[in-house]
Amino acid sequence: MLALADANGIKPSEITPYAAGTLGGMEQFLDFYTPRIEAGQHSGDVERISMAVASLDHVVHTTRDSGVDPALPAAVLRTFRRAAAESGEEDSLTRLFEVFGRGAAA
To answer: Is the pLDDT of residue 104 over 80?
Structure first.
C-alpha cells in the first residue's frame, strides 16, 4: 500500500493515518464475523464475494498501472476468485474461512 501511494505521489506518512484507522477496526471485524463463521453462516446479507473480487481486481490493475509489483494483491484476488468459483459469488466473505481451511488448489 505504501509503495502504491508513493508511486502516485503520496508520501507514505500521508497515507499511514488512514491505514492505521482501517487496521484499528480489525477487532470489530473479528467480533462481527467470528460467530458467523462458527455458525457456518455464509449468506451474503452484509457483503458478497463478488464485491470483493471487483474491488481486488481494481486494486491489481491500479497497482500494475502504477508500476508497483502486483504479486500480493493478485494472490489475494486468485483466492477470492477461487472462493467465488467453489461456493458462489453471492456468499459472504465468511466463506473464505472454508477455502483457506482446505488449503491451496492443486
So the answer is: no
